[in-house]
Amino acid sequence: MDLFFYWNDNPDKIFEEGNIKLAEIHAISSVLKPYASWVAQKGIQECRELCGGLGYSAYNRLGSLREDNDVNATWEGDNNVLLQQTGKFILDNLKKLKSGKKSPFPSTQYLTPEFNTKDYE
User: Fold this and answer.
1) How far is 6 from 40, CA to CA, in rounded Å?
2) Residue 115 has pLDDT above 80, yes or no
3) DSSP assignment, residue 121?
4) How far apart, in whole angstroms, are the C-alpha atoms of residue 105 and residue 1?
5) Catalytic residues, which ones?
6) Which residue would you say has higher pLDDT here, 45 or 21?
7) Average model confidence (pLDDT) for the chain?
8) E strands along the chain, which residues?
9) 34-59 mean pLDDT
């Protein structure tokens, strides 16, 4: 919620040079966009399948919903690239923790210096 209020209460400060919250806003939005588009895509597909053969009928408009939604995986950045950016943000903060620095971002408070990165090398 901190970022929600920050975004609404400080629109003139968000894009100032050196604003560290901008990195967190970017990381969170870079994971929310793929999540929302994939959930919508899966929901439309499930509705179509539940309708059986009528799922292909133009009367229920599921086909047009799917056509309109399919491009969301690429608009405003490819979902996979956006997730890589969020991953980099998390790994950069983990590296800070490993070097003894504290992460300034509330969204990364779950990371701990004891996280064993050797398991993922």
Assistant:
1) 28
2) no
3) -
4) 13
5) 76
6) 45
7) 83
8) none
9) 89
Cα separation, 6 vs 25, whole angstroms: 10
- Quote the CA–CA distance of 46 and 68 in Å, as a whole number: 16
Kindly state the tokens that stand for 34.
């793929």
User: Any idea how long the chain is?
Assistant: 121
DSSP state of 32: H
Residues 46/40, Cβ–Cβ less than 8 Å: no
Q: What is the pLDDT of residue 19?
A: 80
Place of tokens 């003894």: 100
Residue the block writes with tokens 């950045």:
77
User: What whole-number distance in Å separates Cα of residue 115 and Cα of residue 97?
Assistant: 9
Q: Is the dihedral of CA 25, 28, 34, 38 positive or negative?
A: negative
Q: What angle do CA 48, 52, 55 make, to 5 degrees?
A: 40
What are the distances in angstroms from CA 6 to CA 14, 18, 21, 98? 8, 16, 9, 28
Q: How far, in Å, CA of 4 to CA of 8, rounded? A: 6
pLDDT digits (tens, 9 = 90+) for 56-103: 888 888 888 888 888 887 787 788 899 999 999 999 988 888 888 888
- Start-to-end CA span in the chain (Å): 33
